Amino acid sequence: MLNFFGNKAGLKFLAASFLLLQFCSPKGQQSLPEAPALVSKVNPMIGTGGHGHTFPGATTPHGMVQLSPDTGNEGWDWSSGYHISDSSIMGFSHTHLSGTGGGDYGDILLMPFTGVNHWEAGSKKKPEAGYRSAFSHEEEFAQPGFYSVKLQQHNIDVALTATPRTGFHQYTFNGEENPKVILDLVHGIGDNIRELELTITGDHEVSGLRRSQGWARDQYVYFVLQFSQPIRTALLNDGQNVSSEIKSLKGQNIKAIFEFEKSDDPLLAKVALSAVSVDGARRNMEAENNGWDWGAVKNQAQALWEKELQKATVKGGTEDEQSIFYTAAYHTMIHPNIYMDVDHQYRGMDQKIHTAEGFDYYTLFSLWDTFRAAHPWYSIVEPSRNVDFINTLLAKYKESGELAVWELASNETGTMIGYHAVPVIADAIIKGTKGFDYELAFEAMKNSATTRDRGIDHLMDLGFIPYDWESNSVSKLVEYAFDDWCIAESAKILGKTADYEAFSKRALNYRKLFDASTGFFRGRSASGVWVKDFDPMTITTLGSGEYTEGNAWHYTFFAPQDVNGLMELYGGPGAFAQKIDDMWEQEAVNDNEHASDVTGLIGQYAHGNEPSHHVAYLYNYAGQAQKTQKWVRHIMETQYANLPDGLSGNEDCGQMSAWYTLSAMGMYSVNPASGIYLIGSPVFNEIQLKLENGQTFTVKAENNSPENIYIQSAKLNGENYHKAFIHHADIMAGGTLEFVMGAQPSDWGNVQLPEADVEKAFGKELYSEDQLFMPYTASDQRIFTDDLKVELGSIKPEAKIYYTLDGSSPTTASSLYQLPIHLTNSAQLQAISVLGEEVSPVFKTDFNRAIYHIEGKQYPILKLTHEPDSKAYNPGKWALLDGVSASANLRDGKWSGFSDGHDLEAVIDLGTEQHIAKVSTGFLRNTSSWVFLPVKYEVFYSEDGKKWQSAGFQENAVPDDHQTIRRFQFAVEVGQTIRYLKVVATTMGDLPEWHPGFGNASWMFADEIVIEPENN
C-alpha cells in the first residue's frame, strides 16, 4: 500500500502533538478536559495522505458543517481540500467531502492574519505573498469534533470545533498587531461562482450567500458569521474596488477583511449555514450555538462522537488496530449530512423549499460506493437514521422524478453507474424495517429500472447491454442485474407477482455476458459478437471500455444475488474457487493512467476501489471458508494502517471504512440487501454492539492473534454454530457469537453453506441461453465513394435475414438477404434475423456516399497541422478519412486524440473541383476520461489551397457535469464547387475547475471527416 512517510514510525508527529500543542480556553474558563475515551482513539489523519481524500477538521456525526483546513484545491488528491504532503494552509472552510473521487464544497473560507492585507491566498512555494500561512504537522492536532494548528506566518493558534449546523473558530493572536480575518467567498474546491452576496448586519455580524457550480451544479450556501469582538474596520472587495464605506455587495468576486482591536482574549468566530436562507442560518445559530463558550461546544461535539462510537466497542488487538477500527467507525458517520434547518426546512432536488415532516432530510449519497457495506452497517448501528436516509431518498424521488444515483447538495451529479438507491431501500424492506412508505418505495425502485437511459433501454429491449451501443456495458449489466434482484425480492414481499417474475429474470441477465471460452464477463455487440482483442487485465474507466474503473477480473465475480448460478458457469464450486485463487496470483498492475481509483492491488484484487470488496468472502459459497479467513485478514493487515496514507484508496464516504468495521467484526454483506452476512475472521478478542432496540450483540474470538486467523469452531448463544454466515435478525436479537481461533485451516463453515440461487428461490427455470441476435455487417465500413457491397450475417447461420433500405421497419415480407447488397447512394439499412417463429431486434445503420481516402489512390490527400498526440490515440492520419466511424468507446482504436493545445486542423485536397454539399466530423464526449467536445468546429474552402473562406462554424459550450458519454456529429453546409477543404476543431484547453483533473490538459477525440457531394 502507499506509505507517504516510508514506514509506520512516520506518524510520530501525531502522538507528539498531544504533548507539544496546548491551546488556552477563552479567558475565565478552565483548561479544556481530556477527550472522552473512545474519541481519543480516533485518528482523523488516516486517509489524509496517499489517495484517501479525507479531511482532518471538526464535524459532528452526519453534521451539515465540516470545518477543516484547506491546503490546496489544484487536483484529484485535494478532493477534500487537504493533503498531508502540504506545509501551508489557505484557510478554514465549512464544507468538505470525505474520501470522494472528485472535489467540491470548500464553502465560506475564513483565515486569520495580521499586518499587510492580502486578497489572494498566494502559492505554496511562497505563502507569505498571500494570506496563506506555513504550518508544521508537529503543531497540528485532530480529534473528532476538534482540530487545532499553529499558523507560523503570524504566530496565531487556531482551534476549531462544530455543532451540526455551525462552525466555531478560536483564534489566539500571539503578536502585538491588531487581529484581522479575511472572508473569501470566491474560494471553493473545484467549483465556479454563480452568485455571491455579503451584507454587514451589525458590529459583530455579517451574512450572505455563496451559490456555486461544480460537481453539484447549483449549490446554495447561506451563512451568518458572528464575531465575539466588535469589528473595528471592514474592507469589502468586489474584485475591482475596495471600500470601507460599503455595507453590502452582490456579484461573483466578493471578499472582505475584518480588523479588530488587540485583546488578551482569543477572537472567536461562529458561522451558521443553511441551504434555505439567511434567516434559516440565523435560526440554526440561535438553536445550536447561541453563546460564546467555545470549550463547552467542543466538549458537546466530542460527547456526540463518544455516544456514537460507543455503539461498537472493541477489546484486544493492538493500539493501532483499535485506532484503525474507531477511525473507520468515525469515517462512516461523516456522510450523509443533515441538509435541513432546525425548523425542518430544506432545499429539495427541484430547488424549491420544502419541510421535512416526520423524518430528517440528508444529502450526499455516494451510492455506488456505500450500498455495499456502509448502509448495511447503518442498518445495524444506526437503523433509525438509515430510515431517515431512505425517507430522504424517497423525498428526492418525489421532487425530481427519479431516485438518486450520486446526489450532492440536492443536485443529481449522475456520477458512476447502477441505480443503487434500490438495494438500500430493498434491504430495509427485506429486513422488515418500518418507518417509510413501501408502496412509494417500490414505485421509485421500479421507475429507476425502467427509465430508458444509461443503457437501461438496451437492457429492456435486448436483455443485455451491447458494448457497441453503450460504454461500460459489462459493469452496467452486472450491477443492474443485482439491483433488479433487489426489486424482485421487494415485489415478492409486497405480493406483486408479475414484477417478482419479471425482475427475477432480469437478475439473471448478467449471464449473457459470460464468455465460457475465457472465463470472464466480456463485452458483446448487439449482434452477439464478442469484443475483439480481449484482455482481462485491461482497465477502463467511465466511457472508455466495457468496465467502470476496473477490468474483467474486478467484475467477473459480481453476481451477489446468484453466486450459486455464477459458480455453475465455471463448472462448480471447485473451479469457481480456483478462479478466485487465480485472481490473487495475477500481476498487480494498473495499465490505465486515468484509472487512478484502481489501487490497493493484491494480484488483480483491487481493495482501493469498490467492485472487488466482496470477492474474498465468496469462498464461503464454494465450501472453502478457510480461504476467506486467510484473505480477509491479509487485506485488513495490508490495506489499512494507522497512518495518513493508511487507506489503500479513496475512503468513499464511509464504504472503505465500513468494509473494515464489518470485517473486523468477522462478517461482511456480500449481498447487501439479503439480510445475510458472510463470516470471515474477526480481528479483536471482543466486539460489542449496543443496539438501538436495547439489545447487545457480542462477537468473541478465543485464542485470537495475528497468527491464529482460522476459525476452529463457533457457538451462537451457547449452541454449536456451523454456518459460514449469519442472519441480520440474529444480530438484532442480541446474544453472543463465539469463535475459537487457530493457526491452521479447519473445515469449520464448509458444511452448511450460504446460498444465492435466483432460480432455486423462484422455484422454476427463468433463464434461457438461447437468444436470436440481430444481424451484423461483415465490414465496419459505412462510407463509400462510388458503390459498396454490404455483406450481412448472423451468429446463427441457419437464421434468415430480411432487410429494407428505405428507412422502414423490416418484416418477413421484406427483401430476403441472399447476396451482398449493392449500394450506389446513401441509404439506411434495417435488418432482422428470423429463425422459426423467433424474430430478432432490428439492426439499423446508415451508409453515406461521400469522398474519402482509399488506400493506394492519390486523392483525396489529407494533411494535418498537428499529428494526434499519443501512440494510444494515434491510429494514423488516414483514420480521419478512411470510411470507418469510431464508436462511443474511446479505446476502440479508431479515435484520433488531440491535447495540449494541439487543435485538429486538416487540409484536404480533393484532386479536382467538386460540388460539396456538406462536411461533418464525429467527436466524442466523455468528460470523466478528460475527453471534451471542441469549443468550435469550422469548415473552410479554397480554390487554390492558399486563400480560404469560411463555409460556416458551430460553437459548443463547455459542460458543467460528467453525464454525457456519446458520439456527436458536427456538420457545416458548404454548397460550393471547390477543390480544397480545411476542417478546424478547437480544443477546450485545460480541464475546468469543477473537474477532478483540474490543472491538466483536456483531450479532444475526432474521427471520420465525412465529405458529402451534391446529389447524394
UniProtKB/TrEMBL annotation:
It comes from Persicobacter diffluens. One of its GO terms (biological process) is carbohydrate metabolic process. Residues 280-742 form the Glycosyl hydrolase family domain. It comes from the Bacteria. It holds the Pfam family CHB_HEX_C_1. SUPFAM superfamilies: Galactose-binding domain-like, Six-hairpin glycosidases. Monomer. The keyword Calcium applies. Its cofactor is Ca(2+). InterPro entries: 6-hairpin_glycosidase_sf, FA58C, Galactose-bd-like_sf, GH-type_carb-bd, GH29D-like_dom, GH92_a_mannosidase_put, GH92_N, Glyco_hydro_92. The lineage of its organism: Bacteria, Pseudomonadati, Bacteroidota, Cytophagia, Cytophagales. GO terms for cellular component: cytosol. This is Glycoside hydrolase family 92 protein.
